[in-house]
UniProtKB/TrEMBL annotation:
Molecular-function GO term, any one: adenylate cyclase activity
Highest rank taxon of the organism: Bacteria
Organism ancestry: Bacteria, Pseudomonadati, Pseudomonadota, Alphaproteobacteria, Hyphomicrobiales
Residues in Guanylate cyclase domain copies: 110-217
GO BP annotation list: cyclic nucleotide biosynthetic process; intracellular signal transduction
Record-linked Pfam families: Guanylate_cyc
Ranges that cross the membrane: none
Organism: Bradyrhizobium erythrophlei
Protein name: Adenylate cyclase, class 3
Length: 264
């Protein structure tokens, strides 16, 4: 059964929607669909997905096998170009413990969010096979820079990636390195960085700071690295230049935020 995942951070996606999974299965002339909100834990091969509520399901009786094939093909194609990614493995029902909140630990980090500019347009132009190859090279390039500058990958979001750094300077240098590396693939990215606290419970990360980092990235232009004032203030002695990009309202985030562009 083909499965697709739209990933978020602790149920509230960094792009403003709930983490969601889709399953598509065809049996003869009938197509079975299942979808719903999920929690995602871990990254890469060790990633696990859990239904947060019982999933919704739908049965489509298409009349003929060919119509069912066409319906399933179209459903899968839509998932591939709308910020979803293929999901390997089963989706389980999570068992929650009553004292789970007591396990939460506080952490402080610089948060980086990187996103491909006009990814849906590029995916449609290149086709599924070529786009999958490009994305594999993209993530390999991003992860190479993360490893070099000791960044910790938190989650991928279809065509974006969220990571944390112990030091803001490392996060900024990684952002500029990623920008240069992916240009060789014909891609442009926008990057946002924010420094703040978040909570950790096992493989889970929870906190407004992740959403702020994503919203800062959403304000960036193609090829631009933007940082919040929290990052800039921590880097006053770094020698890295910044240009004031004014005060902005970040979607879903209280208050107004002054942002700065990193001068390469």
């Amino acid at each position: 059964m083909p499965k697709f995942l739209r990933i978020g951070v602790h149920q509230s996606n960094v792009s403003g929607y709930t983490s969601k999974a889709w399953c598509v299965r065809r049996v003869g002339s009938t197509v079975f669909l299942k979808w719903g909100a999920v929690e995602v834990h871990g990254v890469g091969d060790g990633r696990k997905a859990y239904w947060t509520l019982p999933p919704r399901d739908k049965t489509i009786r298409c009349g003929t096998v060919q119509r069912a094939k066409d319906y399933a093909k179209a459903a899968i194609a839509r998932r591939r170009i709308h910020r979803y990614e293929p999901l390997v493995g089963n989706i389980a029902t999570r068992r929650r413990t009553a004292d789970r909140g007591a396990e939460l630990k506080q952490a402080l980090a610089t948060i980086l969010f990187v996103d491909i500019v006009r990814s849906t347009e590029k995916a449609a132009k290149l086709g599924d096979l070529r786009w999958t190859q490009v994305m594999n090279h993209y993530y390999a390039a991003v992860r190479k820079e993360l490893k070099t500058l000791r960044g910790k990958e938190v989650v991928t979001t279809g065509d974006g990636l969220l990571a944390t750094f112990a030091a803001p300077a490392a996060g900024v240098r990684c952002a500029t390195a990623i920008h240069k590396a992916v240009r060789t693939l014909g891609l442009e990215v926008r990057v946002g960085l924010h420094a703040g606290e978040y909570k950790v419970s096992g493989a889970e990360v929870i906190g407004l700071a992740f959403h702020i980092g994503a919203r800062v990235a959403a304000k960036a232009r193609a090829g631009e690295v933007l940082v919040s004032r929290a990052v800039k203030d921590l880097m006053s002695q770094s020698g890295i230049g910044f240009k004031d990009r004014g005060v902005h309202q970040l979607k879903g985030v209280p208050g107004r935020w002054r942002l700065y562009r990193v001068e390469h």
